[in-house]
Write a structure and sequence with these properties.
Length: 150
């Protein structure tokens, strides 16, 4: 089992998780972050569970660990998704992070969160055209959380 923060020195946590998922799909992974929000987003592309720092109890984490261990040891590679999950920084950054549906690497895209249409971005690592959409409900929730931060 791997429990990993998404903020790491010298390597993006998203990059690390994409390598783990591609090469070691059978290893259960829990991602934790205080900088990114995954509210309402499918996380299975890169990890089996996600927790917001400070937003879970030890009992919840232990329950998830037990469940993931019971689901192991052999797990098939996750199916290739046709839309990319997005990670939205909790603090103003001017970008959001998309995950390539082909190579699973993450890359920044401009934070143009107006509208709800499906957008396209090219993965800088493999050239795949990635479809993504910013859910305005998630943005409203994020804005409410930002207003509560000190």
């Amino acid at each position: 089992m791997i429990i990993s923060d998404l903020r790491m020195p010298n390597m993006s946590g998203f990059e690390f998780l994409s390598i783990v998922r591609r090469r070691f799909a059978h290893i259960p992974v829990i991602g934790i972050s205080g900088e990114f929000v995954a509210e309402g987003m499918p996380t299975a592309l890169l990890m089996d569970a996600f927790y917001q720092k400070g937003g879970y109890t030890q009992a919840e984490l232990l329950s998830t660990i037990r469940r993931l261990i019971l689901e192991s040891p052999i797990r098939p590679h996750p199916p290739r998704a046709d839309t990319a999950p997005l990670w939205i920084p909790r603090r103003e950054a001017g970008y959001i992070v998309a995950v390539c549906t082909e190579c699973l690497r993450s890359f920044p895209v401009a934070d143009d969160s107006s509208g709800t249409e499906i957008r396209l971005a090219e993965c800088p690592s493999c050239g795949t055209t990635v479809k993504y959409m910013v859910d305005s409900a998630v943005l409203r929730m994020l804005e409410q959380k930002r207003n509560r931060l000190p």
